[in-house]
Each structure stands twice: as C-alpha cells, then as structure tokens.
Design goal:
four-stranded antiparallel beta sheet; alpha+beta
Length: about 500
C-alpha cells in the first residue's frame, strides 16, 4: 500500500449567519440577501482557495424532466432555463480578493435566495484548501475539505398570473389614453399608430394577505401601476408591441452546450403542421416575454418586493394572429380622381364619396421579408353589414375598371409596390374593401440551387423537410377593412 502525504490543511467552520436557525420565509419572485460568516480555526494555515456550489430541492425534478425522452424542445428549453439562469441560491459578486481567510480570522460572504415554487430546502457547499501558490500555477492534483450549510425554505404565493389573453387594437387609440400609460410623442394631438400594438389582458391575483402594487412595463416606453387587495383578482389591459419574426419556424435551441446537436429526431410522432405551430408559438412567446417587465411590492406590513413570473403564459393560434406582423403588409385607400386631391391617404380607413363619382382604389403592398416573392393580388369588395350571401351580390351596385385579381411582377426584399384600380359606386350605402395576396409560385435562389446541384443533398436537410413539411405557397389577408360610405 502506498500513501501520499499532503501539506497541512486548514479547518473552516460556519460561525454564524444572518438567518434565524438557518431558515427563511420568502415569497414567489422575491429575492432576499443573507450573509454567512466563515471562521478559519487553524492557527498557522491560511485558506487561499474557496469554491462555492449550491443545491436545492428544485434541481432534482428538473434534471429528471430533462432526461425524459418524450419532452418537447420547448419544454426542454424551459427546464434548462430555470435550472441554469434562475438558480434558487447564488453568491453575490464581490471582490475575488476576499477568497482568503488568514489563520484564526473570519470572512463574511453574501448570498442571494430566490423564491421559486417547490423550493423547500437548499444547501451551500463550500470547498476550501491551502494551496500555497496561485491557482493558475497548479498543475498536479490537489485536495480540498468541505463544509456545508443546510437551509430550510418556505415559499409562499405572492402575485399569480391567473389568465392571459391578447386582443387586436381596433381603430386608433386616443392620445390621452396613451399618455395615461406613459406614452409620449412629438405631436400630442395625433393618435399613435395602433397597427404596431396589440392589447395584452392579464388577470393578476394577490395571494398574499397584504396590499400589493404591481407595476407593468412594456417596450421600455409604457408603464402602468395596479393596486390589488388581498385575495382579489384584478384585470389589467396593457398595450404591447406587435412582433415580426423573419423565421418563426426556426429551430428551438438548447441552453446546455452538451445538448447542442445539428439535428435531433423527435421521439413523438407529430405532423409538420403541429411542429410549425409549436415553434411559432415558442418564438412569439419569447418575444413578448422579452418586451415585458412585471414587478410587485407590498404596501402594508414588512416591505417586500419581487417579480411576477410571466413564463407561465401560453399562446393560442388566435392570440398569435393578434400579435404577429405579417410578412406582407396590405394597405387600401380610396382616393378621388379630381385634380388637386391628396395622393397620400393610406392612413384613412373610412372614405365618403358620392354616387357615380369616379375614384381610385389604391393598394400598397410591402414585402417585409429578406427574400423576393411572386404576388397575386385579389381585391374583394362587399356590401357592409350584410350576410355573406348578400354581401357578395354587388355587381349591380359597384363597378370597377379592369380585373379584381392581378398577377404582379416579382416584389423584391423590403420593397413596396402599388396597384390602382378605377371604380365607381352605382348606389348609396356602405361598401367594404379587403384584399389578399397569394404567392403565385415559390421563389428559388438560383445561385443556391446551382451550388446544391453540384453537391449531394444532405440527410440533415431531408430530415428537416420531413419534420416541417415541404414549403408551400403562402396567403396574406389585409387586417383592416377600408370602409367606403356612398351618399347621393
């Protein structure tokens, strides 16, 4: 038997903490700071190496969920995010020079605890040693001793997100309403562009027996404060910016580098439509959460403050349609053909003309993507406030010059084009004008196609096509109706 003798090592103990009996009561979303004092009981040997690690009761279930082969990429992303970036315990950043304890001396270190659902216990593990040389000069194996501090944690509910919904903004929002939530602009009498925003409706419940004040912030521009009585649920309606994604079906990444793969085959059999919907919901949800900040603080009793957990929100297809900005923008305007009339009337959604007046229906198409498209425009007039079978019977009431369906030339990336059609109303009443754009055929990058023909098609690309399905022609519809009032 061979034995290796090591140099004398210190003995470190936990002398005291600022927590009563190593126990803490905390609310969900709250962060509390406490300190731990370590004492070096050695008479001659200092401590020049201190390594801190943490364990808590939420790590085990999360690690088990990550190993579940049936978990979706979105679920794995959530598990890894909570495990890696929302630790229950962590050490506050301090000067690295404090990681030295002289013989017989003490050092105090500050730690932070976060209130999380399911957190019942935690452990601070401290590995220490005496190396005698700087850490970057250590080449051989070294040994450490260990001291642990166990914590008992009680987490109580604070402000809960009971329900969420996203609604489109209908029409222009008056400027005083925008100003009430902190929105400002150069011209105070002009309403802000409602096409850039949607309404986020949140039901917030105060589960703590104290008055709460919740503060919501969006887009670093808007803020609103809401007072919630104990046990009450308040509904807050708040404008949030709509989101445009260049690739809403992008691959969901892995936060843990050891799980990074070029392509992962899903163990669950889902259709390409479901896979696309799941990825779209994931990326729009991430964008909304990134633009929102929600915090709370108590107004009575001991002063407490924290954040509202927003990652519990889930988006339905209807909510995604309200928040997303389409790849192709469609704007419709009706302009008189008389001389001297304004040619820039695209912001108006209601127009008033006379019977038998000749007008121009102008449709502006904007390609927001980075790739060209081949558009086919379909203009759809209809009688307003009528059933569908009656609304489409307008041939004797509304006349136009040309065809309502036109195949347009290639529309470049980030380009805009306009289409004008002459029309006249043959009777009084109200008409609605809507439009849709359909891809005539898919655009193919000729240079990329030549490069792909020169080399064999990769199996990864074939699997991606099988997962998301082959690319299909897309269709976009105008979000706002152009209402035309016809009078005698």
């Amino acid at each position: 038997m061979s034995l290796s003798a090591i140099s004398a090592q210190p003995v470190v103990v936990v002398k005291s903490t600022t927590l009563a009996q190593s126990a803490v009561m905390i609310l969900e979303g709250e962060r509390q700071v406490f300190s731990v004092t370590l004492q070096n009981q050695s008479i001659e040997t200092p401590v020049d190496l201190l390594l801190f690690s943490f364990q808590d009761s939420t790590q085990g279930p999360l690690q088990t969920a990550i190993l579940n082969r049936d978990a979706t990429p979105a679920e794995l992303y959530e598990y890894e995010l909570v495990l890696a970036k929302r630790q229950a315990l962590r050490r506050r950043k301090v000067d690295e020079g404090q990681r030295y304890i002289p013989p017989g001396e003490t050092r105090t270190f500050e730690f932070e605890i976060l209130g999380k659902p399911g957190l019942t216990s935690g452990t601070i593990q401290i590995d220490y040693a005496h190396l005698g040389v700087p850490q970057n000069e250590i080449k051989d194996q070294f040994h450490t001793r260990q001291v642990c501090l166990d914590l008992a944690v009680t987490v109580n509910a604070s402000v809960e997100l009971a329900r969420i919904d996203i609604l489109p903004v209908q029409g222009d929002v008056p400027q005083p309403l925008w100003r009430s939530i902190g929105a400002e602009q150069e011209e105070p009498d002009t309403p802000l562009d409602s096409d850039k925003y949607c309404l986020l409706m949140m039901d917030l419940r105060n589960a703590w027996p104290s008055n709460m004040e919740v503060r919501l912030e969006a887009d670093n521009r808007f803020s609103i404060e809401e007072h919630i009585l104990p046990g009450n649920t308040n509904r807050v309606i708040f404008p949030v910016p709509r989101v445009y994604l260049e690739d809403p079906h992008a691959f969901i990444p892995a936060i843990n580098p050891s799980r990074q793969r070029q392509f992962v085959v899903s163990t669950s059999k889902i259709t390409p439509e479901t896979e696309r919907a799941n990825r779209e919901a994931f990326w729009f949800r991430e964008k909304i959460i990134d633009s929102l900040k929600a915090s709370w603080k108590t107004l009575s009793g001991p002063a407490r403050a924290g954040t509202v957990e927003l990652r519990g929100m889930r988006l339905t297809p209807r909510q995604i349609e309200a928040v997303k900005i389409d790849e192709v923008g469609i704007e419709i305007a009706v302009e008189p053909t008389s001389p001297g009339s304004s040619d820039d009337n695209f912001s108006a959604q209601e127009n008033s003309i006379c019977v038998d007046d000749f007008v121009q229906i102008r449709v502006r198409l904007t390609n927001r993507t980075t790739k060209p498209i081949y558009p086919t425009l379909r203009l759809m007039p209809a009688l307003a406030h009528r059933p569908l079978n009656v609304a489409l019977d307008f041939t004797r009431k509304f006349a136009w010059n040309g065809t309502l369906q036109q195949t347009l030339p290639l529309l470049g990336a980030h380009a805009t084009t306009e289409v004008c059609i002459g029309a006249t109303a043959l009777c009084r009443g109200e008409f609605e004008l809507m439009a849709s754009v359909e891809e005539t055929r898919l655009w193919v990058d000729e240079e990329a196609a030549k490069e792909g023909a020169a080399r064999q098609r990769s199996d990864t690309q074939s699997m991606m096509d099988a997962l998301l399905g082959a690319k299909e022609r897309r269709v976009w519809h105008s979000r706002h109706k152009c209402l035309v009032r016809v009078r005698d």
